[in-house]
Amino acid sequence: MEENNKSVGIVKTQFFQIEDNIELESGTLFGPIQVAYETYGQLNETKDNAILLLHALTGDAHAAGYHSEEDKKPGWWDDMVGPGKAFDTDKYFVIASNMLGGCSGTTGPCSINPQTGKPYGLSFPVITISDTVKVQRKLIEHLGVKKLIVAGGSMGGMQALEWAIEQNDLVNACIIIASTGRLTAQGIAFNAVGRNAILSDPYFNNGDYYDKELQPERGLAIARMVGHITYLCEDAMHKKFGRRFQDKDKPNFDFHIDFEVESYLEHQGRTFVDRFDANSYLYITKAVDYFDAAYKYGSLENAFKRTNAKFLIMSFTSDWLFPTAQSKELVQALTKEGKDVSFCEIESPCGHDAFLLEFETQTKIIKSFLAKERGLYEQSL
Amino acid sequence: MEENNKSVGIVKTQFFQIEDNIELESGTLFGPIQVAYETYGQLNETKDNAILLLHALTGDAHAAGYHSEEDKKPGWWDDMVGPGKAFDTDKYFVIASNMLGGCSGTTGPCSINPQTGKPYGLSFPVITISDTVKVQRKLIEHLGVKKLIVAGGSMGGMQALEWAIEQNDLVNACIIIASTGRLTAQGIAFNAVGRNAILSDPYFNNGDYYDKELQPERGLAIARMVGHITYLCEDAMHKKFGRRFQDKDKPNFDFHIDFEVESYLEHQGRTFVDRFDANSYLYITKAVDYFDAAYKYGSLENAFKRTNAKFLIMSFTSDWLFPTAQSKELVQALTKEGKDVSFCEIESPCGHDAFLLEFETQTKIIKSFLAKERGLYEQSL
Description:
The structure is a homodimer.
Chain A (H helix, E strand, L loop, with lengths): L13 E5 L3 E2 L5 E2 L2 E8 L9 E5 L26 E2 L4 E2 L4 E5 L14 E2 L4 E2 L9 H14 L5 E6 L1 H12 L4 E7 L7 H15 L17 H15 L2 H8 L18 H16 L2 H13 L9 H5 L5 E7 L7 H13 L4 E6 L7 H4 L1 H21 L2
Parallel strand pairs in A: 5-8, 5-11, 6-7, 11-12, 12-13, 13-14
Antiparallel strand pairs in A: 1-4, 2-3, 4-8, 9-10
Helix pairs in contact in A: 1-2, 3-4, 3-7, 4-6
C-alpha cells in the first residue's frame, strides 16, 4: 500500500446472496447468485447519495483502496475514488460490484453449481448487460439505496446506459465514458477472434477445465493480446515501443520474441491468465456483443424517452475502439429527446484505456457535473 | 473463365531453378531455390519494357488471367493486368513471382529439403524482404530483362521499395501502393498475435505437420481473422454487416455464430487454410516485421540517395493498417532528396484492401504515370 492520504484505505470485498431465481434475457431462470461488492464512504440518511461504479470487460468489485497493508496495487479506479476525488467518498456512498458471469466473486462460469457440486463451465447461462444490471439492482435495494448515480467506462458505460433506460426510477444521473450504445461490426469481429482463440485452445475442453492440470491459457492470452491492441492507440504505441528489439540490437532470425512490443504483448497475455477465467471472457464479451441500447425500442431516441437522468458523456480523441462519433450518437439522441446531457471529448494519447489513466481531466469534468447535479438536489431539499 | 476481352487469357505458371546458394540477410547460405512465376505480354528487343509485380502477404505468382477454361476466379490483380489495363500487356512484359518462403510454387517451408527428403518446416531459414528481392533478381536476369518497373501493394510495396534501393541499377520506376517504409509497433503487434495463434495450435507440432492427419488449421484461421479485420475499415464493415444476425433475427444465447460479421470472418478463416500454409504465414509475417527501408542507412533520406527511379506512391483514405501518413513519410524523404515522386491519396471506403479493389482510379493514375515514364523513355530513343 502506497502512502496516499486521499486513499479510501483498506477495504474489504463483501458478498450478497440472491436466493431467488432471476429471469434472464434469454428466458432462463437462474439462481442463486452471489454478488461480490465493495463500498466506500457512507450512505446518508435520505439514502440518496449513492454512486454505482460499473466495471469494464475485465474489471471487478475492487474499484478503490487496498485489500491489505501489503497490497502493491490499489483498485482499478483508485485515482478517481476517495476523499476529494472525482467520486468523492466524503460526499458519496460509492458502490462497485463484480458483474454476473465474472470471475472475481460474483457468480459466474467458474462458480460451483449447487445442483452438481461442480463448476458451471459452459452450463452457465449466456447473460446480457441487462441481466447484470438486474442483479446490481438487487444489490442496490439490499443496501437500502433510494436514488443513485451510475458511472462507468467502456462496458461499464453500457451498463450505466442500461441502468438509465431500464432502471430509470432509481437513476438521478448517468456518467458514460469511452463507451457506445452498441458495438459496430468491427468491435464484434475483434471479440469473435478472442473467443475463437479460447474455444480453439486444446485445453479448453468445452469449458470443463477447472480441475485439470492444464488450462486454456494460450487461448486466453491471445484473446487478451488482440483486445490489448484495441485499447491502445497506434501513435502512442509507436512512441512507446517503436521498432526497438527486446534486450538486443538486431533480429533473432527465429520465431522467438524480437521486438519490445511483442514482449509487452506477451507479458500482457501471460499476466492476464493469472487473474481471469477463460469462460468468463467468453460470457462477458458475448454480453458486450449483444448490448444494443436501441434494439428493444427501435431507436436510441425511443429508448431515451424512458429516462429523466442527467447525462455526462465523455470520449477520448485517440480511442479508436469506441471513438468519439459513437459517443456523439448518444449525445444527439439525448438532445433530440430534450434530455439534460453534457458532452466532452478529452484530448488524450492513451487510446481506449484513457478512461483508466486520464484521471485529472476526468476528475475536473465529473466534479463539475456532480456539483451541478448536487446543487440542484440541495436546492430541492 | 469469364468472358473478358481484356483478359490475358489462359496462362501457365512457370518454374525457374536457382541451383547456387544465396546468402540470406541472416548470414545463412541457402539453396537450391525454385521460383514459381508467370509472365504476360512480350519482352521487347531492347529488353527494357518489363514490369515486375510484387505480391502482398498471401499472394502468389498468379497475378492475371486464368489457369484453365474452367477457372472461376482470375489472378489476384487481373483487373490491373491485361491489354489496355493499368499494366498494359500490349506494351509491357509483365512478370509476377511467388515470394521466397511462400507456399505457391516458390521454395518455402512446405517444400522438400533435398538433403532430408522431407519438408523443411521450421528448419527453413528465416527470410527477409531483401532475400526475396535477391531471388527475384535472379529470375529477372534469367528472363534477360535489362531494365524494369517494379510495382506492388502492401507487402508488395515493401518489395518494390527494396528493389528501388538495393537493386537500383535495374529499376526505372517504382510504384508503391498502400504500403510503408516499415511497420509500426501496432503492425508488428497484429502480426505477433497471428503468429501466436499458429504457434499455439495443438496440431502445429513445431512446424512438422505436413504428413499429419490434422494440421494447425484453427491457428492459421485465427491469424487470418485478425489480419482480415485490419484489411477492412470499420465504417465499410459496419455498412456491410451492421449488427445483423446470421440467418435469424435474434441472438442464439450460446457461443455459436450469432452475427453476420462472425460468419464472414469464420468463412475467411476457413477458406484461407485451404490455400495457405501456416509455416509460410510465420515466415512471411516475420519478413514484413523485419522490413525497415531506413534501418541500414540510418534514415529514409540516406536510403533514397541510392536510387534514381521515378516513384509513384498511392494510399487510400480508409486504410488504417498502412495509413496515408506512412506513404507521406516516403514522399517527404524522396522529395528531400530531390527525387522524382508522384503521390496520390485515393478516396475509398475499402480500407487496406483497396489496392486489390479500387482498380479504376488506380488504373488512371498508373497509366498516366507510366505514359510519362514511357514518353521520357521514347524521347530518348
